[in-house]
Amino acid sequence: MWFAVLVTQVFAALVSGAATDTLLSAVQNTDDCPSCLALLSTFQTIALTGTDAFITAFTSLCIEMGTDDPDVCTGIIGLEGPILAHDLRMINTTGQTAEKLCDALLGMCVTHPINPFTVPFPKSPPSNPKKFVSRGRPPIRVAHLSDVHIDRMYTVGSEANCTKSICCRDFPDSPAIPTEPALPNGNLHCDSPISLGDSMLEEVERLNPRFSIFTGDGKEATTDLKAFNEQMASKLSAPIFPSIGNHDTAPVNAFARSTSHTTNNSQFVFDIQSAGWEQWIGPTAAFEVDHNSGSYWAQVPGLDLRIIAVNTQYWYKQNFWLYDSDVFQPDPNGIIAFLVDALQAAEDAGDRAWIIGHIPLGKEDTMQDQSNYYDQVLQRYINTIAGQFFGHSHKDQFEIAYSNYSEQTAANAVSVGLIGPALTPSSGNPAFKFYDIDPDTFSVVDSSVIFTNLSDPEFPVRPTWGLYYSARETYGPLVGLAPDEPLSPAFWHNLTEVFAVNETAFQMFNTFISRGGAVTACDADCQNTTICDMRAFRSQNNCDTPTPGLSLRRRATASHEHDACEGSGLAYILSGMVEASRSRMSSP
Ligand SMILES: *[C@@H]1O[C@H](CO)[C@@H](O)[C@H](O)[C@H]1NC(C)=O
Ligand SMILES: *[C@@H]1O[C@H](CO)[C@@H](O)[C@H](O)[C@H]1NC(C)=O
Ligand SMILES: *[C@@H]1O[C@H](CO)[C@@H](O)[C@H](O)[C@H]1NC(C)=O
Ligand SMILES: *[C@@H]1O[C@H](CO)[C@@H](O)[C@H](O)[C@H]1NC(C)=O
Ligand SMILES: *[C@@H]1O[C@H](CO)[C@@H](O)[C@H](O)[C@H]1NC(C)=O
Ligand SMILES: *[C@@H]1O[C@H](CO)[C@@H](O)[C@H](O)[C@H]1NC(C)=O
Ligand SMILES: *[C@@H]1O[C@H](CO)[C@@H](O)[C@H](O)[C@H]1NC(C)=O
Ligand SMILES: *[C@@H]1O[C@H](CO)[C@@H](O)[C@H](O)[C@H]1NC(C)=O
């Protein structure tokens, strides 16, 4: 018996040593789609010998190459590696799923046609759709919070300039004297301390919104989800309509499909949020959260407005559970079908609806298939949908939907997704939005960003919040917005026309994106791409063409947009390895 165990161990050690070498040469050869598929095939061979062997080989190589700290390699690969190993055991490494995996991991094999799918609708559009007309009544105020990323392990005085996936925490190998000590209330390189969350919520309460929406990313792990629900409940007196973000599960991004044959699903997240949100969304919606993979709809008390919250993570390229079958699944976990049902019910009732979700659909990190199907739903229920609100990018942005994407004009602009800025200081000055809403049409009449300035010497003592800008005041005159018109899709389209010709106005927008903190320069090419992306509510229409072979890791970071300090899982680790092996080979 002991002998068999010994032999197995020796064999495992040999296999893993050899596997690491094989993996190294596959990594070194990866620079286009075929070589990426070959890399997956090598990974697959190892995964077929077992998850442990896979983790060992992948982790050893990551440590050997030194692109990340050993504990970062061990941590991320240990948590997310089993999902990749599971995927690879289930798929053909020459198929469409494998190509999509290469896209998600390394930005290779990016172009594959959209799988045609016509979303079924229970009824055709009404021949005489209900008209929602403004009576010019005073607007309702609504707060939009997003990406708070509260780090409950934030430690004042710890190292803020670290090489971990997240800083401002005490690590066993932290330097005795930090080069940059984490200050109270937050640091540019780190997620939000609890005190910053409290400070923002107190400001939201002071502004007295009729209700709030929260577009996700409290922070992963059971206790954090509960803690942020309690934090919101203790500070805000009006209802909150929350949605689930990619960071609101563990490991991050990992929402298994109901077809995945695993017990590692995110049901624990839905259970917690169902219980935690019931106080605001009511028992029926809370039941839905639990039974519809985190999605629900709820009536806003006293208004003919429904909030439909969708779990966008089943359309997110970095959710590695989406790659465990060669059978194409148009609507994982039925989220699109749920959205259709909720919108049909709203149409039947003569109510309007807002859709809220974490990940906006137009960016490069959303699956083009589901983005296209969602857009079909949007076009069908366009008379009912009065607004769409997202987060995730950590940026103050918008994406316009058109009735015909080949003819992007003001007349064809049918909807806009407004993207909320983040609280987390890692992506600019901490901020949230509030909207003035027409109580008859539920259109957005104004959108204002409220921020606190990280560079203010008073910030560590007590953050002060103030108006950063109002879209109506700042942008209205640039497009000649009439006083009685809302910030309609046509308004946002006309603004993109201004941005294309008025460099000053565009650069102002570029500064606004991060609330004047951590501004990234945007040259003419970047301006062109940025404007193209504003006109892309569908991800197939954006202009984010990744260039494989160039700065893979930067791309991996950008596809998560914010996570520079947070490591971002497998894509980050693997692209760092491929990049490092490349520069190693090119140096003499
Ligand atoms: C599922 O969870 C178990 C227990 O935490 C873990 O050992 C296993 O690796 C996980 N499997 C996947 C595919 O993530
Ligand atoms: C994988 O797909 C290729 C191309 O479609 C096919 O030739 C091959 O037989 C498949 N392999 C397996 C193991 O199914
Ligand atoms: C951050 O740490 C690096 C070394 O890890 C050091 O070179 C750099 O000067 C530090 N930055 C600051 C602002 O202290
Ligand atoms: C969409 O616009 C293109 C380009 O102008 C045009 O050729 C096409 O007919 C339009 N499609 C519809 C359905 O109107
Ligand atoms: C957008 O621009 C078009 C063409 O210049 C104009 O007809 C329309 O009134 C504008 N709409 C808004 C809302 O600014
Ligand atoms: C360009 O935008 C700036 C504000 O950003 C504004 O002051 C200026 O008048 C605009 N120029 C034109 C020609 O509209
Ligand atoms: C933040 O404060 C710094 C330092 O006082 C100042 O230079 C900067 O302009 C402020 N930023 C904004 C967006 O107000
Ligand atoms: C971006 O550049 C392309 C190619 O030069 C051009 O056709 C397009 O009109 C530009 N788009 C914008 C918004 O400037």
Automatic annotation (TrEMBL):
Belongs to the acid sphingomyelinase family. It is found in: Secreted. Its cofactor is Zn(2+). Its main location: secreted. The lineage of its organism: Eukaryota, Fungi, Dikarya, Basidiomycota, Agaricomycotina. The keyword GTP-binding does not apply. GO terms for molecular function: hydrolase activity, acting on glycosyl bonds; metal ion binding; sphingomyelin phosphodiesterase activity. InterPro entries: ASM_C, ASMase/PPN1_MPP, Calcineurin-like_PHP, Metallo-depent_PP-like, Sphingomy_PDE. This is Sphingomyelin phosphodiesterase. Binds 2 Zn(2+) ions per subunit. Residues 422-536 form the Sphingomyelin phosphodiesterase C-terminal domain. Disulfide bonds join 33-109, 62-73, 162-167, 168-190, 522-526.
